[in-house]
Design a protein that fits this description.
The protein is of the alpha/beta class and 401 residues long. 27% of the residues lie in helices and 24% in strands. It is globular.
Length: 401
């Protein structure tokens, strides 16, 4: 960490989340840890600790991610949620990566391939997200029947993905019904793993009776994105009444919004002050001369910028130095930011950009994005420092020293 700008990952909190989830929802057989996007930006080095805590299947977005986990010594099954070019089937077999059959043409091409080893597949159903997946009942039956006859191919799973949490809309119910309709000509009991839900399905709905797997994404990293209860005032009371009427009119299934689960976030972003200077009243700060000092004041220069993934939308928000909040001023630069501080701030003081004092929810709300993107936006040149019991156990750094 040459410039002391880094992401700190609290492994204890991640392991706590896994154990808390399994304790509260013990009725599943397969707990998929969704670790795509470098484990939502936390570093794929955390995966072994998730497995230690009870995750028994992993889900990634690409073959590259799956192979990276295998190289790190991960042994449990890995599902690639996105299609893998059939040119690389040998790698999937040798690395024990489960592939997704998402399309009828993909299925036909797979049937033409000679499979030189045991290949596991999960079939993706498009129940209404209109993204990946089969969406014709006849084709789905043909895919299942065909793959069952294919030498060295095992249909291990079938799944779909919900577009909404289904709390304030009928889409979730419609998708569940659509999945059941599309799979009505096959016997789901003959498929070992059925996984439809994600984090919000787990939290906001009763267990789907025929599903024995659940995909855990954002919840693993400490976030419950269930909408907060509305304040008790006239307009929000009216909104509640309208929602209740909408639920009744559309026969929306009951949902759960009061959830007693103890989740802990694990992601913090830190840097340090590399220069402090006193500037005169009237001085302009940064590119474009967009900020002018209204009095003599101190500024601190901090080594992080949009090239690291620190969005230019952070302009004007607060950071924390020595327990005190200070505003960012001027433009966010490619590799530096500027804060208006006071005489108490010194060179090498630690700067909290995201953490307990500046929560991820606050930051993402300010820059107009979601917590899903919040930790994923920082590139891999920002080192990930993994801590357990308050001690550094591993540093995921892309530069060899």
């Amino acid at each position: 960490m040459y410039r002391n700008t880094y992401i700190e990952v609290n492994v204890d909190n991640l392991q706590h989340n896994v154990k808390e989830i399994i304790k509260k929802y013990p009725e599943y057989q397969y707990y998929f840890g969704v670790v795509k996007g470098n484990a939502y930006g936390h570093s794929d080095k955390v995966v072994k600790y998730l497995v230690e805590s009870g995750i028994n299947y992993l889900a990634v977005a690409s073959l590259e991610e799956g192979i990276s986990l295998r190289r790190d010594g991960i042994k449990i099954p890995i599902l690639c949620l996105e299609p893998i070019d059939l040119e690389y089937l040998d790698e999937c077999i040798s690395q024990n990566i489960t592939i997704t059959v998402h399309d009828y043409q993909y299925f036909r091409a797979l049937m033409e391939k000679e499979i030189k080893g045991q290949l596991k597949v999960h079939i993706k159903i498009d129940s209404g997200l209109c993204r990946l997946g089969l969406y014709d009942k006849t084709q789905i039956k043909e895919v299942v029947d065909g793959l069952r006859t294919k030498h060295n191919v095992e249909i291990e799973g079938i799944f779909t993905h919900f577009a909404t949490d289904g709390i304030y809309d009928v889409s979730w119910d419609n998708q569940l019904a659509k999945f059941q309709e599309l799979t009505s000509e096959i016997d789901l009991e003959q498929i070992p793993i059925v996984h439809l839900g994600r984090s919000q399905t787990l939290l906001n709905h009763e267990k789907i009776p025929f599903a024995n797997g659940i995909r855990l994404g954002i919840i693993l990293y400490g976030y419950n994105t269930t909408p907060k209860p509305l304040p008790k005032d006239f307009w929000n009371t009216l909104r509640k009444w309208k929602r209740a009427y909408y639920h009744k009119k559309n026969h929306i299934s009951p949902t759960i919004t009061q959830i007693d689960i103890d989740l802990k976030t694990a992601f913090s972003l830190y840097s340090e002050v590399m220069q402090v200077k006193k500037i005169k009243k009237g001085s302009f700060v940064g590119y474009g001369r967009g900020y002018q000092a209204q009095e003599d004041m101190y500024v601190a220069i901090i080594p992080i910028g949009y090239a690291d993934g620190f969005s230019r939308k952070n302009k004007g928000r607060q950071i924390v130095i020595n327990g005190k909040r200070y505003p960012l001023i001027g433009e966010i630069n490619m590799g530096m930011i500027i804060a208006k501080v006071d005489e108490n701030v010194k060179i090498k003081d630690k700067v909290t950009l995201i953490g307990e004092e500046i929560p991820m929810y606050e930051v993402t709300r300010y820059i107009g994005t979601s917590v899903y993107e919040g930790s994923c936006m920082f590139n891999n040149w920002v080192p990930r420092v993994l801590k357990k019991d308050g001690k550094i156990i591993e540093i995921d750094e892309k530069v060899e020293k």
